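@channel sequence for tomorrow's demo:
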Amino acid sequence: MQLQPATLLQGRYRVVALIAQGGMGAVYRAVDERLGSTVALKQTLMSDAALRAAFEREARLLAALQHPTLPVVSDHFSEAGDQFLVMQFIPGDDLATLLHQRGGPFPLAEVLVWADSLLDALDYLHRQRPPIIHRDIKPQNLKLTARGELVLLDFGLAKGLAGSGATSSPSLFGYTPQYAPLEQIQGSGTDARSDLYALGATFYELLTGTPPPDALTRSVAIVRGEPDPLRPALALNPQVPPPVSHLLGQALALNPDLRPPSAAALRAALRTGAQQIQVVTGQVPPTLVARDVPLTGTTIAVGGGTAKRRPGVLPIGLGAALLFVALIAFWALGRPSATAGTARSITATPPAISGPGVSFADPVRYGDVGDFGPLHLRILEVQRGDAAWRAMYKANRFNDPPPQGYEYYLVKIALDAADVMPALYPRLAGEQRVFYPPSGVSPAPLPEELVAGQQAEVWMSYLVAVDERSFVLHIDATTAAPNLPALYMAVEAGARLPTDSALEQLDPNDLGTSHRAPAPLGKTAMMEDYAVTVLEMQRGPTVLTTLIERYKDVARPRAGYEYAFVRVRVRYIGDGSVVGWASIGPSNIKTVVTSATDPKAATIAHPSVYSLPDDMPKLEGNLLPGGQFEGYTVVELPVNEDAVALVFSSGFDPNQLNTRYFALRQGS
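structure tokens (generated this afternoon):
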């Protein structure tokens, strides 16, 4: 059901207007009344369990991602039978709308910058373990921020893949024919190269003003012995250089094996091409160079030549390079010069740095100045406890009081910007090695953007464990960021978080490896990357009553089921080699019926209940290696059924190395 303006969800998000609507749901502009910010609220209307699970997977995928070209996800909840995703609101039109308004293709310079940004995001997604495949790249899902940076939206088709990096499962939501590769249309399995096809189709349209013929039409023509109806981009727009047209054609190959092998390879080739075009014609920004693209052993044809890429070597050999320059020169001599459109400059990755500020173990000392690109920062003071809570309440009455066992921790930072600087997302970690995000509206919030010469003093606010010490601030940018390394700054004198060498001595045990023999209540199951202990369980009608007291519209359990509170302790004992930390939340928990009357274990999905009493901290957060926290989650159990175990899983875990089962009562 479509939401009406002024509808209030979760006692927090007030709907302002409908942005878009489709068969599966709608997207609204809304106001987060707690933070006073505008958000995008994605509503999905679905009763099918598989679709609901896919939507929850989208929330989990996005919440764990950090890249300037990807939207920031801040919340996920269920209300009145519908699921909602709260995301960063990007005002303005998408590229499909802007292309229609222009009435013709975009300038080459702008498109190459956008392609570079999007390929960097795809390389980030495809390098996740397991890889994340977007599967719906198209102009309608690309928006420009007010600063002209690209943001990739709508992960409804995204797949997190395991094993070989491909999946044979068809899309749950469909596809857009002009941009979908043949393997996606046929349902024969998608991988990272499928996203490259969609990207090629998207930028083909942005450079020519016309979408390419769909893959099915092309394949039918080829089977009939007819020419491929896909015309080279330069045939529709002579402004497109031959090498760029050639790379688009490669990306649009019907056979995945003939496409570039990776987003990084295609990005490197485009950057090399942009460098040559800039040298010969001055048509693209000089910052689009190939030197900051990871070079690995892959093969890609550029401008008709093929070269084997080796680490540290440009992706085209000398002969191919000469041919490429000749093609550019020939193209440039045959046409008049033109002025390129304005485009965002892409800053190359700075050289590796050493010394204070490069890690939690070696942060900038307390009181010293830390440099994050053109931004200079210095920690001025800290407030915590009752004084911090009073300051938070005075700043915004919608700020929640700290839950039991936690307190507000305010960090005052002096900022001095030598150049334009986008929004930052400083996180905090202390001796418990929990990665705390900013929480609530602080007395002097961080500006969304700093301009050249601007100086400011801001307060960052966090909810941390009571009496926790040795805090270090982790600073990076979330949108429109130059490719800068993170900055680490000590918030207290002498604060540092050295590597915990004891983690290497921890070995997995056999507790809870089967639902038939779950780990006993209070005993710790040691997995490959986690140590988990189920501490207690409360079940029965009083649990629902407690939840309703907190939030009267909480979703009720299904007929024949009841809710239970479970307190769990989780420690991350991995090395943080993938993203540096581990994200833990309710979606890591399920329950399974192990009744002797049923020979097969029946798994029960985690209910969408996120509102807990103030004295019950959630089992939710990010952990650095060695980090640990306790929290409560809500599970759903069959009434009067005692043979039930809790299942902890780290998510996409094809080898089940981080999946264990836990008894929920003594003596199980």
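heads up for whoever presents: The chain has four domains: 8-88, 95-333, 370-490, 504-663.
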